[in-house]
Design goal:
The complex is a heterodimer of chains A (about 270) and B (about 375). With about 270 residues, chain A is of the alpha/beta class. Chain A contains eleven helices and ten strands. Classes of the chains: A alpha/beta (about 270), B alpha/beta (about 375). At the A-B interface, helix 4 and helix 5 of A face helix 1, helix 2, helix 3 and helix 4 of B.
Chain lengths: ~270, ~375
């Protein structure tokens, strides 16, 4: 199965990336590849540089050395905010939503459409309504401002904004952090549904072990600025590498795995 | 019979062609960037009343949810007119998108229909205005009570924090206030010099600069500067503390944020503003003096001796007396706006701006009121 994945077209290639902020070394020779149609997770403890790697992939930061290719283009190109075609092909959901506070939810979701397309106001309204409906927000929320929404709803609204242009690639930064387990599980299911319906490739940064077991096809584990391991959750959990064992076979890791097993077994 | 309705079928853009009045052929790329022409064509489409309509989708090269929404809307519209609509020839993945849209159609329409009515918006803004006034009154009351308690037992007051505030908002503001009032003095003297020279009454430059600066302009300039410099900082600081739940942490220790954060700042400004005003008076008059000697040949000695007889003490005192009132307005409005911040960090900027606007507004209102009242008393 791993072989089959390898032959797919890569949408993201991170090769030999080094990142330093002054004396602090964030990444040392990190390389990974994300292929079309998978849910790829970047995991690791706090401060291991996973969010920094995400910011480098989407062009908000430039790595100190190494090369990152996104949909065939060097991600350094993205730093020129030229409203270019590449920016329309991916959507990003930031950790705290990053919704524009001066706009209603519907206006927030409409921003990419207004800026990147010449569609009529009526059609934009319809597409926005569809995307808000797809992420499962109640009808009265469209006219609300971000400060009037709860944390979970803000997360969904941010997801609606990230998918409004039907991107090929969806980036999620800590999508379930700070959500209660029920809502977090619902969010995971939502991501899977959207991925299936819209044919997305999903790259997410997370340290939510439940979420890793539930939706990640492949996981890259970062630690001390290095890539500690990459593969399916089963492969990583079965590994003998002490760093991997510590992460995936600790009490929480085992609980998440057990949980996953219980959920999966009736379906098998 | 409808005439064939055709849009540009060449190129990439989405297009629709009506064939034999019963078949709608879709062509081109039905994606968000290219679906515009097809949407316009479909919107103006005259559907055949009743009967059946066949939508031929095999010519669609690319399809996304934008295209699916356009096509679904057209199908819904035709059905509403009583047409029997069948969709044929769509590729499997395109058909999947169409069913995604139709499965969510009702939820979508609910979102489109859900808008806040104008009346509800007006209502909520009226409510918030009334509530804001009440909250403002509540805040003034709470601060006064805290001041009363502190007056009964001065040991409760946070002297250290008040002194720190005095340094930050008073001492550190010296350069900017000094420079600005000096320049204002220069500007007033220049403007006056033009007029006075015409009448040969050069010495009256002293009255002009002295009275206007001491009585009105120096206190106002200082107040406006401090509102922008310190009032906004109070709002941002207290607001950030509220967002990060620091205020709640204080309350769980049994400490009153009003006593801890508001009182020291009010006290510091009440002390700092009159002092800054005196300093501003001196520099402003000095600026005027420079221009008087330069432009009107009024020497420093002549200026100062005229100053003694022309500018009555009351002008200076009125200016200085207004300063503490301005200080209370600025400090209270700044702190009040800080406490008003709700929800997230996004509110901090809005309330910081509000604090500056409101305190400058109130300062000028108060100043105008003073002018009217003092005029009655012939002062």
């Amino acid at each position: 199965m791993a072989l089959a994945v390898q032959t797919e077209t890569p949408v993201i290639e991170v090769s030999h990336v080094f990142t330093r902020f002054g004396p602090a070394v964030v990444h040392q020779d990190v390389s990974l590849t994300v292929v079309k149609g998978e849910v790829f997770a970047i995991a690791g403890g706090n401060g291991c540089g996973k969010s920094t790697l995400l910011r480098e992939i989407i062009g908000l930061l430039a790595p100190t050395a190494g090369k990152i290719t996104l949909l065939g283009v060097d991600s350094r190109e993205l730093q020129r905010a030229d409203g270019g075609a590449l920016h329309r092909r991916f959507g990003v959901m930031f950790q705290h939503g990053a919704l524009f506070s001066s706009m209603t939810l519907a206006q927030n979701v409409a921003v990419p459409l207004r800026e990147h397309t010449a569609l009529s106001a009526g059609l934009i309204r319809d597409i926005v309504a569809l995307k808000i409906a797809l992420v499962g927000l109640p009808p009265d929320s469209a006219a609300k401002f971000p400060r009037e929404l709860s944390g979970g709803m803000r997360r969904r609204a941010a997801l609606a904004r990230a998918i409004v242009m039907d991107p090929e690639l969806l980036f999620l930064d800590e999508p379930t952090a700070g959500l209660d387990p029920m809502i977090a599980a619902g969010f995971d299911d939502l991501v899977l549904d959207l991925k299936r319906m819209l044919g997305l490739t999903v790259v997410m940064v997370t340290h939510d072990l439940d979420s890793l077991w539930r939706i990640a096809d492949r996981v890259a584990l970062l630690g001390d600025g290095r890539l500690l391991g990459m593969g399916t959750m089963e492969q990583l959990a079965a590994s003998d590498d002490p760093a991997l064992r510590e992460y995936f076979r600790g009490p929480r890791g085992r609980a998440a795995q057990l949980n996953h097993g219980e959920r999966e077994s009736p379906r098998d | 019979m409808n005439r064939p309705h055709t849009t540009d079928p060449r190129g990439q853009s989405a297009a629709v062609t009506f064939v034999d009045g019963r078949t709608l052929r879709c062509l081109g790329s039905w994606t968000m960037s290219d679906v515009g022409p097809a949407e316009r064509a479909l919107r103006g489409m005259e559907w055949p009343p009743g009967g059946s309509l066949r939508v031929e989708g095999s010519g669609i090269a690319a399809f996304d949810t934008g295209g699916a929404v356009v096509l679904s809307r057209a199908v819904m519209e035709a059905r509403r007119r009583g047409c029997e609509v069948t969709i044929e020839g769509l590729r499997a993945e395109h058909a999947q998108l169409m069913s995604l849209v139709s499965a969510n159609w009702n939820a979508m329409m609910a979102h489109v229909a859900a808008r806040r009515s104008r009346r509800a918006r007006l209502q909520s803004s009226m409510d918030s205005l009334a509530a804001q006034l009440l909250r403002g009154l509540d805040f003034v009351g709470e601060s006064s009570l805290a001041l009363l308690r502190a007056g009964l037992s001065p040991a409760r007051l946070r002297w250290r924090s008040a002194l720190n505030s005095l340094r930050l908002d008073g001492v550190n503001a010296l350069p900017i206030t000094g420079l600005l009032t000096f320049l204002i003095g220069v500007v007033i003297a220049y403007q006056g010099a033009e007029q006075l020279r015409k009448f040969g009454t050069n010495i009256f430059i002293v009255d002009l600069v002295g009275i206007s600066l001491l009585r009105e302009i120096a206190p106002l300039i200082v107040a406006i500067l401090i509102a922008g410099r310190s009032g906004s900082a109070y709002a941002a600081h207290i607001g950030t503390m509220k967002v990060t739940e620091e205020l709640d942490a204080l309350r769980t220790f049994g400490l009153s944020p009003t006593e801890l954060l508001v009182l020291p700042r009010v006290l510091a400004l009440v002390v700092a503003l009159p002092l800054l005003t005196v300093y501003a008076d001196a520099l402003g008059v000095f600026g005027g003096m420079l221009i008087a000697s330069n432009q009107l040949n009024v020497s420093f000695t002549a200026f100062l001796s005229r100053f003694e007889e022309a500018v009555a003490l009351r002008h200076f005192l009125i200016g200085i007396a207004k300063a503490p009132c301005f200080a209370v307005i600025i400090a209270l409005v700044g702190c009040y706006q800080g406490f008003q911040i709700r929800g997230g960090v996004d509110d901090v900027g809005r309330h910081t701006t509000l604090s500056v606007v409101q305190s400058i507004f109130l300062v000028i209102m108060f100043d105008a009121l003073c002018s009217i009242i003092l005029n009655w008393w012939n002062l």
